[in-house]
Design brief:
Elements lengths: L1 H5 L7 H10 L2 E6 L7 E4 L7 E6 L4 H21 L8 H15 L6 H10 L11 H8 L16 E4 L4 E3 L3 E2 L2 E6 L5 E5 L4 E3 L5
Parallel strand pairs: 1-3
Antiparallel strand pairs: 2-3, 4-5, 4-9, 5-7, 6-7, 7-8
Helix pairs in contact: 3-4, 5-6
Length: 200
């Protein structure tokens, strides 16, 4: 399993991550890309493991940050069950505690590390909420075009293959029409996209 983690994580991270997963009895699943989230956490069923999923296709730094975010949820559940809020002070403390060793060991490029240190002062429910962090992480994606960079009406594809036409902005998300079923969806402005080029 440790060797399987190597391809998703920065160099040198597989062993400490495996130790965290083992210590807290966590089952990790690599999920198909999802529009609404990069990862999620589900508490144990009876005596089973904690269950975490993280989207495939993330760059290694995004994958690590997302995974640590979800592991912190498992730790909080073990300590408090559902007696605390999901992203309250208890979660922020645990997220910080397990993230700092990776920050102090040169895991991240300096551009990511500088922004991430600031982010960790008061981490949000999802790092999509921190536009500076999302933008610096996008520099390490193979496709660096973000939805906000496209013109109104542009047709695009997101990871996973779903295609849309860009519509109006509503706070932090664009209202986009699916090219498959014509329904409207809210897609975050910092979602990585591939432009669909029209035939001439």
């Amino acid at each position: 399993m440790i060797k399987g983690l190597d391809k998703y994580l920065p160099d040198g991270c597989a062993v400490p991550i495996w130790s965290l997963l083992t210590k807290w009895h966590i089952e990790l699943r690599i999920a198909k890309p999802r529009i609404s989230k990069l990862g999620d956490y589900r508490p144990p069923l009876k005596s089973g493991p904690h269950r975490i999923s993280v989207n495939q296709g993330l760059n290694k730094y995004s994958f690590l940050i997302t995974l640590l975010h979800e592991i912190a949820h498992a730790i909080v559940w073990d300590k408090y069950k559902n007696r605390v809020t999901p992203h309250g002070s208890e979660w922020k403390l645990e997220y910080n505690k397990i993230s700092v060793p990776f920050l102090n060991n040169g895991v991240y490029p300096s551009s990511v590390e500088n922004v991430l240190r600031h982010h960790m002062n008061n981490p949000k429910a999802g790092h999509f909420s921190d536009t500076r962090l999302v933008k610096v992480l996008a520099d390490y994606d193979s496709d660096q075009t973000l939805l906000e960079d496209l013109e109104f009406g542009a047709k695009f594809v997101i990871k996973g293959g779903r295609s849309f036409a860009k519509g109006p902005l509503q706070r932090t998300r664009f209202k986009c029409q699916s090219l498959q079923n014509k329904k409207l969806y809210l897609v975050h402005k910092l979602t990585p996209v591939s432009l669909i080029h029209q035939a001439i």
